[in-house]
Amino acid sequence: xxxxxxAVLVLDKPAGIAVHAGRPGDDHLxxxxxxxxxxxxxxxxxxxxxxxxxxxxxxxxxxxxxxxRLGEIFAQGQADKVYWAVVIGRPRQxxxxxxxxxxxxxxxxxxxxxxxxxxxxxxxxRWRLLGCDGRLSWLECRPLTGRxxxxxxxxxxxxxxxxxDRIYGRGTGTLAGDRLALxxxxxxxxxxxxxxxxxxxxxxxxxxxxLLTACGFSEPLPRG
Length: 224
Known about the structure:
By secondary structure, this protein is mainly beta. Helices cover 12% and strands 29% of the residues. Strand 11 (182-189) and strand 12 form a beta hairpin. Residues 8-157 form the Pseudouridine synthase RsuA/RluA-like domain.
C-alpha cells in the first residue's frame, strides 16, 4: 500500500499479476480486493489499469463517488502518470514526443497493438532520457493518452524496445530477470481542485535495480 485516504487507494502492484481475470486458473488482483476494504462496506474498484507485466502505482476508488471522480481525472488526461522504462540502445535525442496511432491487431495474427496511421486511435507519449550505460537507456515516459501497451509499442516503433518485452522486443533477452522493464513510478491526481493533488511514488523493484543502477540510478533501494 502506497497511499490511503477515505476515497482513494494506491497500490504498489508487482509485475506478473493481472488486474482482471484472464487465463483460467491465473491469480489476479480482483480476487484480493475484499481484503482492501479497511472498514468500507464494499471493496475498492480499479480506477485505471496496468498491464500484467508492469509494476508500480495502481489507483483504486473506495466508493462510487470516488470512482466517478477518478474516472473524470483519467478520462480528461488530468492524471500525471510517470513510468520508468529500460530500453535497448540510446535515442539520438535527449527527449521527445512519440505520436503514432495505435490499433489492436486481429486476433488471428496474434494479439498485440500495431502502428496504423489511418485506422488507429491517437496515441502520444512524452519521453526523456534519464541515463544510459552505452547499451541500455533509462527513460522517463509520460503517456499523454491511455492506449493499451502504448509505451511498449511506441518505444519499439522508434527502434528502442523495452528490455524483457516478448511481444514488441524481438528477443530482448532476460536482462530484467525474465520480467518487463517497465515500472509505473509515480502518479499525481488533482482529486480536489481546492486542495493539493494526491502525489504518490512507487519504489524501484529489486528486479529492476541492477539495470537502472547501470544507467545511473543512485537512490537508496527498499529492503527485502
